Amino acid sequence: MENVINGINYWIGCLSGEFNLMTKKEISNRPLPHKWSKKEILGHLCDSAINNIDRFIKIQYEEQPYVIQTYSQDQWVLLQNYQDRPLDEILDLFTALNKQILNIISNIPKERLINLCDIGYNKQKTLEWLIKDYLKHMEHHINNQILIKNNP
Predict the structure, then answer these.
(1) First CA to last CA distance, the chain
(2) Does domain 2-146 have CATH number 1.20.120.450?
(3) Given 3-state DSSP classes, what are the helix, strand and coil percentages for the chain, each rounded to the nearest 5?
């Protein structure tokens, strides 16, 4: 878990500075009409945190395997109107949610990391796998979408 904690802490510490290096146009530009802007991608990462907070807690005490509930990612981004919200508000939300995730995963007893969850498609994974996948998902969006220079 130490690598996950370090990774999340890293992004909490530097993501705001990365956004400060971008223009407002670059942050708000949608590369295609049906694609998210960098600001909406950050909002999506907040939504991911919200959903995973619930999962990381419930997998520890509910019947095994815990069945992961999916959510409509496009609807969450749209209905929360990340595109028109101030960037600093979304960054503050990202920071607060991920600090909560750090608190949760820092307090998971080692024996609960092997608790199983059903991720769909007849696949079961451990809580530890899900937590590591959370950081992998975050870094995918940050490295491949937010930090990539687009020509708006």
Answers:
(1) 38
(2) yes
(3) 65, 5, 25
